[in-house]
Amino acid sequence: MDSTEPLPLAVQWSVHLARDRRRSEHTVRAYRATAQRLVAFLTAHWGQAVDRRAVAGVEAADLRAYLAQRRGGGLTNASAARELSAVRGFLDWANGDGTAPRLKGPRVKKGVPRPVSPDEAVALAGAVAQESDEPWIAARDWAILLLLYGAGLRIGEALGLTGAVLPLGETISVRGKRDKTRVVPLLPAVRAAVEEYVRLAPWPAARDAILFRGMKGGALSAGVVRVKVRAARTRLGLSERATPHALRHSFATHLLGRGADLRALQELLGHASLSSTQVYTAVDAAHLLDVYRAAHPHG
Is 248 part of the annotated catalytic residue set? Predict the structure, then answer.
């Protein structure tokens, strides 16, 4: 390629995500692939080459056609929501002013309350982080929501962490209700998210200081996180059940579905009694029944 030839749009977008928004390598790779799919679709859809100016002119009807093609390929509701979130970010970047068309994403069928799916949890966390132009705030929001989904923390527990938890290891000590302390394993992705936030935060992580800070340096309010999640779930077309606390429920239910026993789950969640944990068996059974009814010929 000639050195004077501009990089493909999807590559330009990924450079912006990595350099300016400091997104993780995994996120950059996934979003670049989405942008490449969209550009390829628009090239065929419009019958002409697509540049940044053309992408900036995408309308809601074009997005509906793109999503219809993707859904035709077997994309699930949750994956479609995540795809739409990435597309919106790409179009906002192409516009330069954040005025990409807003298209309501696919909704999850209403019924028995169920946990947020893994795809929805990651899409929700990514959409919240993507809204901030400040890299450290984006990293903060991503880290907090991963602590809820990936470690099962309550929102208050995550926001109550101090610099004393650093440097992070394979576990983290959490102070829960009634000042009970428990030790929770940290997945590598969760640990990396918190470490990235600490690296980017404009304040030093003093041992006795709150870890997650607000815009002016004070303690971050749980209300701020809830508002951000509410706005993100609306953009993604997720149901009202997609709340910060739902991410903790999802952590529990998904672990139970993978074979975790109730006693271990009780310890991880910090429940005072086993009866508090047993509610997840009913939730998991409801989910399994849904799967059975959908798959069984006589369901």
Answer: yes
